[in-house]
């Protein structure tokens, strides 16, 4: 399997198991059985704060960290937003949106969000579960025929990346078809055909394996049981109620203006290309959506809490609790729930497809939101540029909760 094939439609992947961290003994605390004088030696330094105040000095440190990553990883443009109640907001854009013209990156640009689309598709599924139309532990074969192990793979296992189905975007034939004509349209069934020509990887539920195939099946399920096109359902039942007026599920390669040009080396010849007009239909329910910084700020808290901005429930509390159960993954101390991760306390998802990467995460401990948008997916030292940005920013603003998503080449 070629390196480029393994990289398509990234956006995963890890989470701290159960979404919690062990609490250390408070600095300076003395066990009851120890005399008070035993603690008179110098105390350890106080713990670092969950989130530092975004003072002008801290903002300058974030600026410097982002610029350092851009310089080292050759990232053309980045926009970063950080919001914590009671603290100054941080919204900055760096670099260029278009390398040819030199047009500056800006915070109001539309962007392709890749695998963050999964959070919307799984939300649609969970709403149907709330309505009693489907059950999380129903086999997918009850609704869609022709799925290998379809009589045993549950909807929960599809949403939690534990189905064992081969990831179609790792198929060499698919990669050749896409890169030979990046503006072509793919149907969901064509994508499944690429996946189903491969044997299943393991028995359902046995392990974690990130696969876009799972989300194509869930997208078809939502359409079948709702009677609506997936994009129409998401618009009516998720985007509209959340007030996300600048987020859309494109039918083809349409891309609202203004937007950044995207740059990738996932091409037939390995050369860097502009992917702005590539058709994201090949990602469909797993990675086709478009959004903006402001809308993703709304979505970060909405998807992490299950509540819409007006306080109403997007999904039931019971369903949200199930969503946030994060069983272990192969990465030590990490897990993935139902279309969502928790990395060192940060809940959300990342997204990557040729030319664009995004990161939308929420820290419940302080109600902090972090969104990062990049116009490249070209890795640096085997790491995603969005991970490099996420780590650099959180090392500065949330030193007890550093976002560090290890590279996972097979999870695309």
Instruction: Enumerate how many helices there are, as a single number.
Output: 12
**What Rg, in angstroms, do the CA atoms define?**
21 Å
Q: For the terminal residues, how far apart are their CA atoms?
A: 13 Å
Query: What proportion of the residues form beta strands (DSSP E)?
Result: 5-15%
Question: Which word captures the global form?
Answer: globular
Low-confidence stretches: 1-6, 13-44, 408-412
What structural category arises from helix and sheet content? alpha+beta
Largest sheet: 6 strands, antiparallel
How many individual β-strands?
10
Biggest sheet strand line-up: 2-1-10-9-8-7
Query: Which sequence of SSEs, written as H and E, runs from N to C?
Result: HHEEEHHHHHHEEHEHHEEEEH
DSSP helix fraction: 25-40%
How confident overall, as mean pLDDT?
Answer: 88
SSE arrangement:
Blueprint: H1 3-7, H2 56-73, E1 77-83, E2 90-95, E3 111-112, H3 117-130, H4 155-159, H5 172-180, H6 188-196, H7 212-226, H8 230-242, E4 263-264, E5 273-274, H9 284-287, E6 290-291, H10 293-305, H11 317-323, E7 341-343, E8 346-353, E9 356-363, E10 368-374, H12 385-397
Antiparallel strand pairs: 1-2, 1-10, 3-6, 4-5, 7-8, 8-9, 9-10
Helix pairs in contact: 2-12, 3-7, 3-8, 6-7
